[in-house]
Design a protein that fits this description.
Elements lengths: L6 E6 L7 H15 L3 E5 L18 H12 L2 E9 L2 E2 L1 H8 L3 H4 L3 E7 L7 H12 L3 E9 L15 H22 L1
Parallel strand pairs: 1-2, 1-3, 3-5, 5-6
Antiparallel strand pairs: 3-4
Helix pairs in contact: 1-6
Bound molecules: flavin mononucleotide.
């Protein structure tokens, strides 16, 4: 195990840390922190990333900061809402700002939230996308269906099985990050 704590970046496919996907990412980051990692959350509401290709995007200060932060991290915990059967535009655009040199060879934990019944479409689409970035999504993954009922009034996950799957996912991402760094 490296002496430096693992650095883990959380990415949400929604604006605001208070969105359901933002909440999932922050629950995951808290577990990573409890295991000794140093954690970061990129909040697109505070620091929006422009659409790739829009005027001035290549000189955007948020993009530079985001890419530098991603480069400095060892692992990623990611959650997208499912929109029309796939990841949100915010999620895709966030990944469109990352290249192999920022995320390649690093472990990734995939999560998604759905208004309807849970399925793996968004997770699979993100997994395929990550192949082009040479990233290493771990086999564990988590789809939270009927997401409106998934949290209590304090923002805690209500379902024990979901909590256990989240812990397994985070543990796997940290273990993989340690192996990939060695
Ligand atoms: C444009 C749009 C498309 C959506 N498509 C789906 C869908 O295909 N399947 C589904 O279960 N829920 C769908 N939903 C519901 C979202 O998945 C749900 O609101 C989201 O996971 C909540 O997380 P958030 O607070 O992070 O946005 C859609 C919502 C929007 C706004």
């Amino acid at each position: 195990m490296s002496e430096q704590p693992l650095r883990v970046l959380g990415l949400s496919g929604e604006y605001r840390s208070t969105s359901k996907s933002g909440m999932m990412v922050n629950h995951a980051l808290n577990l990573a922190k409890e295991s000794g990692a140093e954690v970061f959350f990129w909040d697109c509401n505070e620091k929006p990333l422009p659409f790739v290709g829009e005027d001035g995007c290549w000189e955007n200060a948020n993009v530079k900061e985001f890419q530098e932060l991603a480069s400095s991290c060892d692992a990623f915990l990611v959650c997208s809402p499912e929109y029309h059967g796939t990841m949100s535009g915010v999620m895709k655009n966030t990944f469109d700002w990352l290249y192999d040199k920022h995320i390649g060879g690093k472990s990734v934990g995939l999560m998604c939230t759905l208004g309807g019944m849970q399925n793996s479409n968004t997770l699979n689409h993100m997994r395929i996308m990550l192949r082009w970035l040479h990233a290493w999504p771990v086999p564990e993954q988590l789809a939270v269906g009927h997401v409106k009922e998934a949290f209590d009034d304090d923002g805690e996950l209500t379902d024990e099985a979901t909590k256990e799957r989240l812990k397994s996912l985070v543990d796997s991402v940290l273990n993989a990050a340690t192996m990939l760094k060695a």
